[in-house]
Amino acid sequence: SDGSKLAKGKSLFWDAVTDATTLEDEPTAEFFEEKTSIIAPKMIFYQTEDRVDAPRGGQLTTRGLKADDSQRGAFGGWGNVTIIWKGKMNFQKAQQKAFFEEDVQLSRKDFKMNSQNLEVGFQGEDLKAKDLKATGNVYILEKSENLLREAYGQEATWDLVTNFIEIPGQGTLFMQGGEEEPKEEGKVNVSWDKKMTMDDTQKKITFYEKVRAIKGMQKVNCNQLNVFMGEGNKVNHVVALGDVLFTDTKEGGIEGIGDTMEWDWEKDTMILSGTPTAEVRRKKNRTFAKKIYYDTNSQRISWRERPHWQIPLEGKDSSRSFSLT
Q1: 6, 81, 112, 254: least CB-packed within 10 angstroms?
Q2: Which residues contact 121 (CB under 8 A, 6 or more apart)?
Q3: Pick from 196, 112, 189: which is nearest to 154 by CA?
């Protein structure tokens, strides 16, 4: 110990040629410095390069981030943060980078992120965490009293300054609201092909290309889905764009086709728009209008301008239909 740093282990070896100090113990040696601790079987400290290696797995923890000093430490404002890895860890202070390999897990009280590899970028003399990049079987879990969110993908980047997350490539997101919501209606599954972005500042989640969303017995397919969050990060309203196909699979439900759909999540009402018209189908009946309004609770269809209907004929001409405007 030198007052600000403390090392505990079975052996401590200094290499005069490389100016590297190796700390080892079984099952783990320990190193403490201000708000950060590292627990690992082996740690190598390179004084000249200002670098730390932990080549046999370990755990890094930021400690003591209480309300009165919540902005101190690498993950200021995050509370206590723990990173566990099974492969190796490499921290390069001069480059302001840390790398973790194999079965990596970053966790705090209400958040967890698993991946095969994790890169953490820092900034400033006090080494505040600036961004994260996770690759390989990425799993993100966020859980609070009123919200559960789980995201899956092969890669994720997170700007910790702006709180902006991106999951490129294909992925899925599962969301579930609080206990006050019906069990099935409160569950939402979304999958996408191109990318997902989550902007905490704007309270907005956007999904791109071949988006498929399921909420209870309602389904929507589109090219882009914008989800806007309200208080407590609960879904407030949703906007679907491009090649929209909406389906209400309940008895007496509809199938809607259009260019845009605005969905009031709390009232469970929606507006389907199209150019030149949107289309709603119920059984064999079809309704066309520039804007069609639908209430999923009452299953009522309405419109504001003069609509166009297509009604099938009965009897021997049942394969034909006639238009009524």
Answers
A1: 6
A2: 96, 97, 129, 130, 131, 132, 133
A3: 196
